[in-house]
Specification:
177 residues, 6 helices, 35% helix
């Protein structure tokens, strides 16, 4: 138990250090994981997906909004992160409020304009998943392990393409596999 606490404290220090440039307001790695909500999010064309559908992957869920400047600034970094971690068992997705978009094409074009054309994106109808997580600000990132358990959160923007951040995500994945 003590070893786990020291490991989490060490990871917290490295994670925070790697994200100082990104103005992360807070990283919270939980001492004990908890079950992720089963609330669905929706593909641009209306297909429901639950977080459990991503089981087997280390899932990074970035809650964002098109009216949030820090959210927009991290889109191209997140795209680079997705490209650099492809086929590694790490999956990053964007979840935005459904009310932000008139059409799926509008959302797709917006993401392409800001350099995030390789990031999977979903909409959160009535902000149901955000509410179930207790998230009311953006950007806000939730970290889900391969067994669909929430292991931590990041409040604020992240410089996703920073080598220290990428390395730390790989470490978290290895610890929680």
């Amino acid at each position: 138990m003590l070893k786990k606490i020291f490991l989490l404290l060490g990871l917290f220090g490295v994670f925070c250090g790697g994200m100082e440039k990104a103005s992360a307001k807070g990283v919270n790695l939980f001492a004990y994981s908890r079950k992720a909500p089963e609330t669905p999010v929706y593909t641009p064309y209306g297909k429901a997906r639950r977080l459990q559908d991503f089981a087997g992957n280390f899932l990074i869920i970035v809650f964002w909004s098109k009216t949030c400047i820090p959210c927009i600034r991290e889109l191209d970094n997140l795209n680079t992160f997705v490209n650099r971690t492809a086929d590694s068992g790490i999956k990053a997705i964007l979840v935005s409020p459904e009310k932000d978009w008139l059409t799926p094409e509008e959302q797709k074009n917006f993401l392409a304009r800001y350099g995030a054309d390789n990031v999977e994106f979903y909409v959160d109808r009535n902000a149901a998943l955000a509410k179930d997580f207790g998230i009311f600000t953006s950007p806000h990132t939730v970290l889900i392990d391969q067994q669909s358990m929430e292991i931590g959160r990041i409040n604020g923007a992240v410089e996703w393409d920073d080598d220290n951040v990428i390395e730390e995500i790989y470490r978290l994945k290895a610890i929680h596999s």
